[in-house]
Design goal:
Length: about 90
């Protein structure tokens, strides 16, 4: 799993701690994102930056800026390892 897939997994896990199974349901609505949290597998197929952005937007749509802050906090250590041009603006 690459760094952005790890970031997506961490975002989903942190959202799940707060909103429960809705987090997984919302993640599964994001095109290009395949999620199996039981196996700790998250696959991104396509433009990783765009798909990660859409994942954050999916949570933002439901719960507003608070969800974005949870996403930022979840990946703050992980995204330091990713190239800055690959990181969606919402989680910078």
């Amino acid at each position: 799993m690459d760094i952005l897939e790890q970031a997506a997994e961490k975002i989903i896990e942190e959202q799940e701690k707060i909103i429960g199974p809705i987090a997984l349901e919302q993640a599964k609505k994001v095109p290009g994102l395949t999620v199996n949290l039981q196996k700790h597998e998250v696959k991104i197929e396509g433009d990783q930056k765009e798909i990660l952005q859409k994942l954050v937007e999916q949570y933002q749509h439901l719960f507003g800026q608070a969800s974005v802050e949870v996403c930022k906090d979840a990946v703050k250590d992980i995204i330091k390892q990713a190239p800055s041009d690959k990181i969606p603006s919402l989680i910078l």
